[in-house]
Design brief:
This protein has 15 helices and 15 strands. The protein is α/β, with parallel strands linked by helices and about 450 residues long. The chain has two domains: about 300 residues, Rossmann fold (3-Layer(aba) Sandwich), CATH 3.40.50.720; about 100 residues, no CATH class. The protein has a seven-stranded parallel sheet with strand order 3-2-1-4-5-7-12, sandwiched between helices. A two-stranded parallel sheet has the order 6-15. Helix 2 packs parallel to helix 4, helix 4 packs parallel to helix 5 and helix 12 crosses helix 13. The two termini are about 25 Å apart. Bound molecules: nicotinamide-adenine-dinucleotide. The site of nicotinamide-adenine-dinucleotide (NAD) has 25 residues, from helix 1, helix 4, strand 5 and strand 8.
Length: about 450
């Protein structure tokens, strides 16, 4: 089992990489600027961080056997709209990941590249074909990442694996991507529009197959190798439109102008090396993958919409849970101070021991990950100290002790009820969020 940090693990492909890693028995840790909308809260260890913040990448990389680096500006439209941000995120972000891997001695960096690097190529291409300078800035930034991988491998001995992803499709895909947008339009009874003639083909790959390929790339044989992870069939845009039309219902297909710099899809990209060395075979037929996407999309549509005020509700909920943790920790601190007045635990060492003894259950209930969740860990310690000070300043300690002893059964029941409520609430929330998102 390996511990794998997945940057961009809350995204479309990254979230499936996380799932496939876990299914294969690995420990996946998400590193992303947001919580995963595809996993129940708390289901997957998550570090909220920015790949542009070197310190946080470095800290998250500590103790990891590998990093699957997927965080990027992946939407070519967004790259064109904000080139500066995209360039920093894709190039500097990759640099930071490699440097963190070097510093922390991470065994492998798996880099998510793209078959767009073959944009200018023609005929049949494999991983050894010399690449031309790309037309699109997105491709240039992804290529920069590939070059950094090679440099880190040669200069510093950081093992890297470059995976050139085909065009992914499937559940959790961005609505603007071609399959989701065709499906949405078809479901709305609107015509499907094709940029250009529709004859251009693309090597689509079903996202769960792709994610499985990322997991296979952890194999030792993949160190310092490059692989194309592409589907087994070339699919033309016109075929996509017809597949969607067959699966959803009869709608018109119309043609519009092509976009500048787009992947022309002319080259036939070979996935032979991944099959031979990694034993990876994309199993899902295009039609089957589209029908799985449609089923997922329908399930998403059937779910109640997220309420507009949910972010505030989320914040209030987290405020409430933090307040609960602070109160529990405060009470634990006061109890520790009380204990320190008993004969058996009067010395400072015993007092510290009592603090730790009582702090551990509080931290466990609060789900604090001491190494990563510093804010919560700090809150527990601070609240315990406040509890100590409060208790020390309270003159009627003896009365409080008497009261506590007098009502001990009732207090024990209250504590038991509170712990059960906390556990039940957590399980219910996990179940509800799981139902909402597990559809993908
Ligand atoms: N989607 C495609 O068509 C495609 C094709 C080939 C290769 N790729 C590559 O695969 C990877 C994943 O693509 P995707 O489609 O899942 O993208 P996505 O946009 O769904 O996911 C990217 C994730 O990165 C996170 N992220 C963004 N900025 C970040 C930052 N500064 N720090 C940490 N996390 C940050 C986002 O929150 C998001 O969860 C990318 O590297 C992309 O270049 C994508």
């Amino acid at each position: 089992m390996s511990r794998v940090l997945v940057t961009g693990g809350a995204g479309f492909i990254g979230s499936f990489v996380v799932d496939q890693l876990r299914a294969a028995g690995h420990e996946a840790v998400i590193f992303d600027v947001r919580e995963s909308p595809h996993h129940a809260r708390g289901e997957v260890p998550t570090v909220i961080g920015d790949v542009l913040d070197y310190e946080s990448v470095c800290e998250a990389a500590l103790g990891c056997d590998a990093i699957a680096h997927l965080a990027a500006a992946a939407d070519v439209g967004e790259v064109a709209k904000d080139p500066e941000t995209a360039e920093r995120l894709n190039s500097r972000g990759t640099f930071n990941v490699l440097e963190a891997a070097r510093e922390q001695g991470v065994g492998r960096v798996i880099y998510a590249s793209t078959i767009w690097v073959y944009s200018e190529a023609e005929g049949s291409v494999d991983e050894d074909v010399p690449l031309h300078a790309p037309a699109h800035l997105y491709t240039a930034t992804k290529l920069a990442g590939e070059l950094y991988c090679r440099s880190y491998s040669e200069l510093f001995g950081v093992d890297t694996t470059i995976l050139r992803f085909g065009i992914p499709y499937g559940p959790r895909a961005r609505p603007a991507a071609v399959v989701p947008s065709f499906v949405a339009r078809a479901l709305a009874g609107e015509p499907l529009s094709i940029a250009g003639s529709g004859e251009q083909t693309r090597r689509f790959v079903y996202v769960e197959d792709l994610a499985e390929g990322v997991v296979r790339a952890l194999a030792p044989v993949a160190a310092n190798r490059t692989y194309n992870l592409v589907g087994s069939q070339d699919v033309s845009i016109r075929e996509i439109a017809h597949t969607v039309r067959d699966l959803v219902g009869d709608v018109d297909v119309v043609h519009t102008e092509g976009r500048a710099g787009d992947f022309n899809g002319g080259a036939e990209i070979s996935g032979t090396r991944a099959a031979r060395e990694l034993g990876w075979h994309p199993e899902t037929e295009f039609r089957e993958g589209v029908s799985r996407y449609i089923a997922w999309h329908r399930r998403q549509e059937a779910l109640p919409p997220r309420r507009a005020h949910e972010p505030i509700a989320e914040r209030v909920r987290s405020l409430g849970s933090n307040a609960g943790i602070a109160v529990a920790a405060g009470v634990a601190g006061a109890l520790a101070a009380l204990l320190s007045r008993w004969d058996v635990v009067t010395d400072p060492v015993s007092f510290l021991g009592a603090m730790v003894l009582l702090g551990v259950p509080v931290a466990l209930i609060a789900g604090v990950d001491w190494a990563r969740d510093r804010a919560r860990a700090g809150l527990v310690i601070l609240a315990m100290l406040v509890g100590v000070v409060f208790q020390a300043l309270t003159p009627q300690t003896r009365d409080i002790v008497q009261d506590v002893l007098h009502h001990r059964i009732m207090l024990a029941l209250v504590v038991l009820a509170a712990v059960s409520a906390l556990a039940a609430g957590r399980a219910w929330r996990a179940d509800r969020e799981g139902q909402r998102d597990a559809a993908g």
